[in-house]
Fold this sequence. Notes:
The structure holds 2 protein chains of 2 kinds.
Chain A: H1 2-7, H2 12-21, E1 26-27, H3 28-38, H4 47-60, E2 63-70, E3 78-84, H5 86-108
Antiparallel strand pairs in A: 1-3, 2-3
Chain B: H1 2-18, H2 23-48, H3 52-77, H4 81-106, H5 117-129, H6 133-158, H7 161-190
Helix pairs in contact in B: 1-2, 1-3, 2-3, 4-7, 5-6, 6-7
Amino acid sequence: MAKSKSSAPLTPAVLHILLALSTKERHGYGIMKQVESDSQGKVNMGPGTLYGSIRRMIEAGLICESGKKIDPETDDERRVYYKITGLGRKALAAELQRYREVVAIAKQKRLSPSAFAYDT
Amino acid sequence: MTHKHSIQRYRRWYARLLRLYPKAYRERFGEGMKQTFSDLLRERAEERGREIFVLALWMFVETFAGIVRENMRVIIMQNITAYRLAVGVAFAPAFLLVWFYGAVAEEGDSPGPIFLGAVAILVIGALIARLRPRGMTYALSATALAQALIALIEMIAWGQYLELSILNGFFIALWVGSAMLFRRASASGLDVERTV
Protein backbone atom coordinates (compact mmCIF):
# COMPACT_ATOMS: atom_id res chain seq x y z
CA MET A 1 0.00 0.00 0.00
CA ALA A 2 2.62 2.44 1.12
CA LYS A 3 4.98 1.26 -1.56
CA SER A 4 2.45 1.77 -4.33
CA LYS A 5 1.66 5.28 -3.06
CA SER A 6 5.30 6.27 -2.83
CA SER A 7 6.03 5.12 -6.39
CA ALA A 8 2.96 6.64 -8.07
CA PRO A 9 3.61 9.69 -10.32
CA LEU A 10 3.07 13.01 -8.55
CA THR A 11 1.20 16.07 -9.73
CA PRO A 12 3.35 19.20 -10.27
CA ALA A 13 1.85 20.86 -7.17
CA VAL A 14 2.59 17.85 -4.96
CA LEU A 15 6.10 17.51 -6.36
CA HIS A 16 6.88 21.17 -5.65
CA ILE A 17 5.41 21.03 -2.14
CA LEU A 18 7.50 17.95 -1.35
CA LEU A 19 10.57 19.71 -2.71
CA ALA A 20 9.81 22.76 -0.57
CA LEU A 21 9.47 20.62 2.55
CA SER A 22 12.48 18.42 1.79
CA THR A 23 14.90 20.85 3.42
CA LYS A 24 12.89 22.02 6.42
CA GLU A 25 9.41 22.30 7.88
CA ARG A 26 7.37 25.28 6.66
CA HIS A 27 3.97 26.91 7.09
CA GLY A 28 1.58 27.52 4.18
CA TYR A 29 2.99 30.86 3.10
CA GLY A 30 6.55 29.55 3.51
CA ILE A 31 5.72 26.63 1.22
CA MET A 32 4.28 29.00 -1.36
CA LYS A 33 7.34 31.24 -1.35
CA GLN A 34 9.68 28.26 -1.65
CA VAL A 35 7.65 26.77 -4.51
CA GLU A 36 7.71 30.11 -6.29
CA SER A 37 11.45 30.36 -5.80
CA ASP A 38 12.18 26.74 -6.83
CA SER A 39 10.08 27.04 -9.96
CA GLN A 40 11.43 30.51 -10.78
CA GLY A 41 7.92 31.89 -10.60
CA LYS A 42 6.45 29.35 -13.02
CA VAL A 43 4.29 27.57 -10.42
CA ASN A 44 1.84 29.92 -8.74
CA MET A 45 -0.57 28.46 -6.25
CA GLY A 46 -3.31 30.25 -4.39
CA PRO A 47 -4.44 29.22 -0.91
CA GLY A 48 -7.24 27.04 -2.35
CA THR A 49 -4.86 24.91 -4.42
CA LEU A 50 -2.14 24.84 -1.77
CA TYR A 51 -4.33 23.70 1.10
CA GLY A 52 -6.29 21.31 -1.11
CA SER A 53 -2.96 19.68 -2.02
CA ILE A 54 -1.85 19.72 1.63
CA ARG A 55 -5.06 17.95 2.64
CA ARG A 56 -4.55 15.24 0.02
CA MET A 57 -0.89 14.84 0.93
CA ILE A 58 -1.66 14.47 4.63
CA GLU A 59 -4.27 11.84 3.81
CA ALA A 60 -1.75 10.02 1.59
CA GLY A 61 0.82 10.15 4.39
CA LEU A 62 3.31 12.21 2.37
CA ILE A 63 3.46 15.10 4.84
CA CYS A 64 2.18 15.78 8.35
CA GLU A 65 1.62 18.69 10.69
CA SER A 66 4.61 19.32 12.87
CA GLY A 67 3.08 21.77 15.31
CA LYS A 68 1.95 25.34 15.73
CA LYS A 69 4.41 28.11 16.35
CA ILE A 70 5.20 31.75 15.65
CA ASP A 71 7.23 32.69 12.59
CA PRO A 72 9.44 35.63 13.64
CA GLU A 73 9.92 36.67 10.02
CA THR A 74 6.24 37.38 9.38
CA ASP A 75 4.18 38.37 12.44
CA ASP A 76 3.14 37.16 15.85
CA GLU A 77 0.41 34.80 14.67
CA ARG A 78 0.85 31.14 15.53
CA ARG A 79 1.03 29.06 12.38
CA VAL A 80 0.71 25.39 11.57
CA TYR A 81 3.94 23.99 10.18
CA TYR A 82 4.13 20.99 7.88
CA LYS A 83 6.94 18.51 7.41
CA ILE A 84 7.71 15.71 4.97
CA THR A 85 7.30 12.11 6.16
CA GLY A 86 9.35 9.04 5.36
CA LEU A 87 6.79 8.04 2.75
CA GLY A 88 6.92 11.56 1.31
CA ARG A 89 10.73 11.30 0.95
CA LYS A 90 10.36 7.97 -0.82
CA ALA A 91 7.73 9.43 -3.17
CA LEU A 92 9.97 12.42 -3.90
CA ALA A 93 12.97 10.19 -4.54
CA ALA A 94 10.93 7.96 -6.86
CA GLU A 95 9.64 10.98 -8.79
CA LEU A 96 13.10 12.49 -9.16
CA GLN A 97 14.38 9.12 -10.36
CA ARG A 98 11.60 9.07 -12.94
CA TYR A 99 12.65 12.53 -14.14
CA ARG A 100 16.29 11.40 -14.36
CA GLU A 101 15.28 8.42 -16.47
CA VAL A 102 13.25 10.61 -18.80
CA VAL A 103 16.16 13.01 -19.19
CA ALA A 104 18.48 10.07 -19.86
CA ILE A 105 16.17 8.79 -22.60
CA ALA A 106 16.02 12.27 -24.10
CA LYS A 107 19.82 12.44 -24.08
CA GLN A 108 20.07 9.05 -25.72
CA LYS A 109 17.80 10.25 -28.47
CA ARG A 110 19.79 13.50 -28.67
CA LEU A 111 16.67 15.50 -28.06
CA SER A 112 16.73 19.04 -26.80
CA PRO A 113 13.89 21.50 -26.05
CA SER A 114 14.61 23.31 -29.32
CA ALA A 115 14.03 20.05 -31.24
CA PHE A 116 10.30 20.59 -30.82
CA ALA A 117 10.10 24.23 -31.76
CA TYR A 118 7.39 24.65 -34.35
CA ASP A 119 9.14 27.26 -36.47
CA THR A 120 7.60 26.55 -39.83
CA MET B 1 -1.95 52.35 6.54
CA THR B 2 -4.64 52.23 3.86
CA HIS B 3 -3.32 48.87 2.72
CA LYS B 4 -3.53 47.54 6.25
CA HIS B 5 -7.20 48.42 6.41
CA SER B 6 -7.86 47.01 2.95
CA ILE B 7 -6.11 43.77 3.83
CA GLN B 8 -8.12 43.46 7.03
CA ARG B 9 -11.32 44.04 5.09
CA TYR B 10 -10.43 41.50 2.40
CA ARG B 11 -9.45 39.04 5.11
CA ARG B 12 -12.89 39.38 6.72
CA TRP B 13 -14.53 38.70 3.36
CA TYR B 14 -12.20 35.78 2.80
CA ALA B 15 -13.13 34.34 6.20
CA ARG B 16 -16.77 34.47 5.11
CA LEU B 17 -15.93 32.68 1.89
CA LEU B 18 -14.14 29.94 3.83
CA ARG B 19 -17.39 29.13 5.60
CA LEU B 20 -18.45 27.41 2.38
CA TYR B 21 -15.84 24.69 2.90
CA PRO B 22 -16.94 21.46 4.58
CA LYS B 23 -16.74 21.89 8.34
CA ALA B 24 -13.91 19.42 8.96
CA TYR B 25 -11.76 20.99 6.25
CA ARG B 26 -12.46 24.53 7.44
CA GLU B 27 -11.62 23.72 11.03
CA ARG B 28 -8.34 22.16 10.04
CA PHE B 29 -7.08 24.55 7.36
CA GLY B 30 -9.21 27.70 7.64
CA GLU B 31 -6.86 29.62 9.93
CA GLY B 32 -3.82 28.78 7.83
CA MET B 33 -5.63 29.83 4.67
CA LYS B 34 -6.56 33.19 6.17
CA GLN B 35 -2.97 33.75 7.28
CA THR B 36 -1.62 32.82 3.86
CA PHE B 37 -4.19 35.08 2.19
CA SER B 38 -3.09 38.03 4.34
CA ASP B 39 0.60 37.24 3.84
CA LEU B 40 0.23 37.29 0.07
CA LEU B 41 -1.70 40.55 0.11
CA ARG B 42 0.83 42.15 2.44
CA GLU B 43 3.68 41.05 0.22
CA ARG B 44 1.94 42.43 -2.88
CA ALA B 45 1.20 45.72 -1.12
CA GLU B 46 4.85 46.13 -0.18
CA GLU B 47 6.06 45.25 -3.67
CA ARG B 48 3.64 47.02 -5.96
CA GLY B 49 1.66 49.48 -3.93
CA ARG B 50 -2.01 49.46 -4.71
CA GLU B 51 -2.43 46.34 -6.85
CA ILE B 52 -3.87 44.19 -4.08
CA PHE B 53 -7.48 44.18 -5.29
CA VAL B 54 -6.70 42.07 -8.36
CA LEU B 55 -4.71 39.59 -6.30
CA ALA B 56 -7.49 39.37 -3.70
CA LEU B 57 -10.04 38.80 -6.43
CA TRP B 58 -7.90 36.06 -8.00
CA MET B 59 -7.56 34.33 -4.63
CA PHE B 60 -11.33 34.54 -4.07
CA VAL B 61 -11.96 32.83 -7.40
CA GLU B 62 -9.17 30.29 -6.88
CA THR B 63 -10.43 29.46 -3.40
CA PHE B 64 -14.01 29.18 -4.63
CA ALA B 65 -12.83 26.53 -7.11
CA GLY B 66 -11.27 24.72 -4.17
CA ILE B 67 -14.54 24.97 -2.25
CA VAL B 68 -16.43 23.34 -5.11
CA ARG B 69 -13.79 20.59 -5.32
CA GLU B 70 -13.85 19.85 -1.60
CA ASN B 71 -17.63 19.81 -1.38
CA MET B 72 -17.87 17.52 -4.38
CA ARG B 73 -15.26 15.23 -2.84
CA VAL B 74 -17.27 14.93 0.36
CA ILE B 75 -20.42 14.20 -1.62
CA ILE B 76 -18.69 11.63 -3.81
CA MET B 77 -17.18 9.88 -0.76
CA GLN B 78 -20.67 9.11 0.48
CA ASN B 79 -23.18 6.60 -0.77
CA ILE B 80 -24.73 8.91 -3.28
CA THR B 81 -26.76 7.11 -5.89
CA ALA B 82 -29.85 9.12 -4.99
CA TYR B 83 -27.84 12.33 -4.87
CA ARG B 84 -26.31 11.78 -8.32
CA LEU B 85 -29.68 10.95 -9.75
CA ALA B 86 -31.18 14.05 -8.14
CA VAL B 87 -28.46 16.24 -9.67
CA GLY B 88 -29.11 14.70 -13.08
CA VAL B 89 -32.86 15.17 -12.82
CA ALA B 90 -32.38 18.81 -11.75
CA PHE B 91 -29.81 19.50 -14.44
CA ALA B 92 -31.94 18.24 -17.33
CA PRO B 93 -34.79 20.82 -17.10
CA ALA B 94 -32.34 23.59 -16.22
CA PHE B 95 -30.33 22.82 -19.33
CA LEU B 96 -33.48 22.57 -21.46
CA LEU B 97 -34.82 25.90 -20.24
CA VAL B 98 -31.54 27.73 -20.81
CA TRP B 99 -31.07 26.10 -24.21
CA PHE B 100 -34.63 26.85 -25.27
CA TYR B 101 -34.35 30.44 -24.05
CA GLY B 102 -31.12 30.89 -26.04
CA ALA B 103 -32.63 29.32 -29.15
CA VAL B 104 -35.75 31.49 -29.01
CA ALA B 105 -33.77 34.64 -28.23
CA GLU B 106 -31.54 33.93 -31.23
CA GLU B 107 -34.62 33.96 -33.42
CA GLY B 108 -35.26 37.47 -32.15
CA ASP B 109 -38.32 36.40 -30.20
CA SER B 110 -37.18 36.58 -26.57
CA PRO B 111 -39.73 35.19 -24.12
CA GLY B 112 -38.44 37.59 -21.44
CA PRO B 113 -36.27 36.98 -18.39
CA ILE B 114 -39.20 35.52 -16.45
CA PHE B 115 -38.72 32.37 -18.53
CA LEU B 116 -35.48 31.72 -16.65
CA GLY B 117 -36.92 32.63 -13.24
CA ALA B 118 -37.04 29.01 -12.06
CA VAL B 119 -33.42 28.41 -13.08
CA ALA B 120 -32.39 31.56 -11.21
CA ILE B 121 -34.19 30.31 -8.09
CA LEU B 122 -32.43 26.96 -8.47
CA VAL B 123 -28.98 28.55 -8.76
CA ILE B 124 -29.54 30.85 -5.78
CA GLY B 125 -31.04 28.00 -3.74
CA ALA B 126 -28.11 25.68 -4.57
CA LEU B 127 -25.64 28.36 -3.49
CA ILE B 128 -27.47 28.92 -0.21
CA ALA B 129 -27.78 25.16 0.36
CA ARG B 130 -24.11 24.66 -0.55
CA LEU B 131 -25.26 21.59 -2.49
CA ARG B 132 -26.26 19.76 0.70
CA PRO B 133 -29.11 17.33 0.09
CA ARG B 134 -31.50 18.75 2.67
CA GLY B 135 -30.99 22.31 1.42
CA MET B 136 -31.28 21.14 -2.16
CA THR B 137 -34.65 19.58 -1.32
CA TYR B 138 -35.89 23.03 -0.32
CA ALA B 139 -34.17 24.68 -3.30
CA LEU B 140 -35.83 22.30 -5.76
CA SER B 141 -39.20 22.68 -4.03
CA ALA B 142 -38.88 26.45 -4.35
CA THR B 143 -37.89 25.99 -7.99
CA ALA B 144 -41.01 23.90 -8.66
CA LEU B 145 -43.15 26.55 -6.97
CA ALA B 146 -41.49 29.28 -9.04
CA GLN B 147 -42.14 27.27 -12.20
CA ALA B 148 -45.82 27.00 -11.28
CA LEU B 149 -46.04 30.77 -10.71
CA ILE B 150 -44.29 31.44 -13.99
CA ALA B 151 -46.76 29.13 -15.74
CA LEU B 152 -49.63 31.07 -14.21
CA ILE B 153 -48.18 34.41 -15.32
CA GLU B 154 -47.53 33.08 -18.84
CA MET B 155 -51.10 31.77 -19.11
CA ILE B 156 -52.53 35.09 -18.00
CA ALA B 157 -50.30 36.96 -20.45
CA TRP B 158 -50.43 34.66 -23.50
CA GLY B 159 -53.40 32.32 -23.12
CA GLN B 160 -52.50 28.93 -24.69
CA TYR B 161 -53.56 27.14 -21.54
CA LEU B 162 -53.13 23.57 -22.76
CA GLU B 163 -49.65 23.96 -24.28
CA LEU B 164 -48.34 25.95 -21.33
CA SER B 165 -49.84 23.51 -18.84
CA ILE B 166 -48.17 20.54 -20.52
CA LEU B 167 -44.82 22.28 -20.93
CA ASN B 168 -44.66 23.70 -17.41
CA GLY B 169 -46.15 20.54 -15.92
CA PHE B 170 -43.26 18.60 -17.43
CA PHE B 171 -40.72 20.92 -15.83
CA ILE B 172 -42.53 20.98 -12.50
CA ALA B 173 -42.60 17.17 -12.43
CA LEU B 174 -38.84 17.06 -12.95
CA TRP B 175 -38.18 19.69 -10.26
CA VAL B 176 -40.40 17.83 -7.79
CA GLY B 177 -38.82 14.49 -8.72
CA SER B 178 -35.39 15.92 -8.11
CA ALA B 179 -36.51 17.38 -4.76
CA MET B 180 -37.78 13.95 -3.71
CA LEU B 181 -34.49 12.31 -4.68
CA PHE B 182 -32.54 14.92 -2.72
CA ARG B 183 -34.83 14.22 0.21
CA ARG B 184 -34.04 10.54 -0.04
CA ALA B 185 -30.30 11.32 -0.19
CA SER B 186 -30.71 13.50 2.90
CA ALA B 187 -32.58 10.75 4.75
CA SER B 188 -29.73 8.32 4.04
CA GLY B 189 -27.46 10.46 6.22
CA LEU B 190 -25.62 12.38 3.53
CA ASP B 191 -26.03 15.61 5.47
CA VAL B 192 -24.33 14.43 8.64
CA GLU B 193 -20.75 14.99 7.54
CA ARG B 194 -21.62 18.21 5.77
CA THR B 195 -23.23 20.02 8.68
CA VAL B 196 -21.62 23.45 8.66
